[in-house]
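Annotated sample (chain length 217).
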Amino acid sequence: MRLAAEGFYSEDALAELAVSGAAHNAGFPLLQAVAVSRARFAQTPDHRPALFAMLHQFDAGKRFRPGPAELRHWLNVSELLHNATGGYVGGTHAPEDSILWIAEGRYVLEGKHKPRLRPLYPPGADTDLPEPVCRIIDMKDAKATIAPWFEDYPDDASAFAAYQEALRRAVAVVRVNISLAIRNAFDRVHELRRTKGGPFFPEGGSDGPPQDPFPPG
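Output written by the structure step:
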C-alpha cells in the first residue's frame, strides 16, 4: 500500500493484473480470470511475468545494455521504446506475442502469434497448434478450480493429444494476447507518468534481479 500511495509500480504485479483483466474482458468472471492468469504464470516460475510483454522483439529492447551497476526492468525498456524513433507502435500485436487459447471455457493452451521457429513438442503433437497450460475443472460461485496439464496425464504426449484435440473440436474458443495486454498496461503507466511525473520504482529497484533474454556476448 505504501508503494501504491507513493506512485511506485511492481511490474510483475502489473503484468499479472493485465492478463487477468484481458481474460475478464474476454468474458470470464473476474475471479476465474485471475485464476487463469495465476495458473499461466505458475507454469514458468523461473520467468517473471513482466518478461512476457515480449519487449525484446523491438529494436530498442534489443539494443539496451545496462551498465555494471544498473538493473534492467521491463518498464525501463518500455520507456526506451516510447522514446526511440520508429520500431514500436503501441496497441498492436507482434510476431512473438504469447497467445492464450481457451477452448469451450475449459482447456487453456498457449502459442505464439507468428512463431519464428517450430516449437519442440513430443512426437505426434501438431506443431501448428498451441501447447497445454491448464484445465478449468469447475466454475462455481464465480471461482475457478484449475488443474495444471501435467497433473492430468501420465506423459507429455497424452496431454498434448488431449488438449489439441479439444481445441480442434471446440465450438467456442477465446483468444487472449497476454503480451499485448501487458504492453498496453505498461503504455498506460507511461501515459500517466507523462501527465503526472514521478518515479517508477522504490529505491533499490522493482521486483528483484531482472532477466535479460539478450545477454551481451
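Annotation: The chain has one domain: 11-114+125-196.
Annotation: The mean pLDDT is 77.
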